[in-house]
Amino acid sequence: QQQVKQSPQSLIVQKGGISIINCAYENTAFDYFPWYQQFPGKGPALLIAIRPDVSEKKEGRFTISFNKSAKQFSLHIMDSQPGDSATYFCAARGGSTLGRLYFGRGTQLTVWP
Amino acid sequence: DTAVSQTPKYLVTQMGNDKSIKCEQNLGHDTMYWYKQDSKKFLKIMFSYNNKELIINETVPNRFSPKSPDKAHLNLHINSLELGDSAVYFCASSQAMNTEAFFGQGTRLTVV
After folding, report:
1. How far is CA B105 from CA B3, B36, B96, in A?
2. pLDDT confidence of residue B52
């Protein structure tokens, strides 16, 4: 059973545009929601993370919006750049997961000039 | 000064062989993990160790055996390799079980 559902699978955005990736979860025990960025041939790298006691977190051009009642969270990339082209994974952890991260299936983002 | 390093980066081997992947972290973390990324890029945890003690053992064939000689190392040994084992294997570490996880560069295993 997929613990975290992510959409879209792929996303093409023009340079300067806004990229939006959505995730949904079921387990209300989750209390930590990170986003990872992965470039080809590299490992996932933490981009930004949020806990459910806040509804939004912003770091530079990257913002997480969190809706606890809907059990959804999303990543917004403002002013998208070609260098942002990568695969993005949402994830969730908490409760009795013993540190285990449950990943979404990833979104392949392409930002074209 | 790589934080989480894995060796080898690429591994091509024949079916039936036994192989090992090594992982070392120099962050002083207590917890280490192995994740598998399949051909569709889906990441799923396989094992985790905390202070050399096995904490998570997902539904993974017995052919996969992790070994943690000390807190800085978590190696993955795979017996009788099968075609379906082909994937990218990532090692990761975190200070504790509920803190940020840092991933290595991955080991691309190809079984032919």
Report:
1. 10, 12, 21
2. 86
